[in-house]
Amino acid sequence: MPKSLSADDRFAVIEVIQRYAHACDSGEFALFDDTFTADAELDYRSAGGPLGGRDALREWLAKNRSGLLMWQHLLSPPALEARGDAVHARTDVYTPNLFRGAANEVGILHTGGRYHDELIATSLGWRIRRRRYENVWVHGVGAGDAIPDPLRGARGPS
After folding, report:
1. What residues of the chain score a pLDDT lower than 50?
2. Whole-prediction pTM
C-alpha cells in the first residue's frame, strides 16, 4: 500500500508541474532550475526532442519556441501516486502552437500529450527527477514535420 500524500505535498507537486508550463509559455526557462533536479532525466524523444537533462530541454524548447508566435500548455489535474520516497504523476497536456506562415497568415499546430513524472522532495522543495513526454496526437500544419505524428498510418474506424 503506497503512503498517502498530505494536502500540502499534493499542492506543492501540482505547483511544480504548473511551474513547468509557466516556464515554457513565458519563455522563462531559468525556472527549470526550480522545477527539475540538477540531475533530472528527461525524455522528449516522442516529440522530436532530446533525451537528456534540464539544460538540453531548455535549449531545445527555446529553439522551437523562437519560431512560434505563441504556445500555451493546458494541463489536466495530475493523477498522483506516492511510491516510496517519490511521487509519480501523470498529466495530460494540450498545447496549441500559433505561428505565422509564408503568406503572413496565422497557422495553428495542435498537440496532445501526456507527462509521466517522478518527483522527489528536496531541501529546496519538490522537484521532477524523471519525466517522459508521450506524444499522443498532433493536428495541423507541421504535423509529422515539426512534431512527429504518432497517428500517421493509423486507421480510423471501419
Report:
1. 1-2
2. 0.91
The pLDDT tens digits for 37-72 are 999 999 999 999 999 999 999 999 999 888 889 999
Q: Residue 43 in contact with residue 133, Cβ under 8 Å?
A: yes
CATH architecture of the domain with range 7-140: Roll (3.10)
Domain boundaries in the chain?
Answer: 7-140
For 81, phi then psi, to 5°, come to: -145, 125
C-alpha cell of 77? Answer: 489535474
Contact 53, 47 (CB under 8 A): no
Contact 119, 129 (CB under 8 A): yes
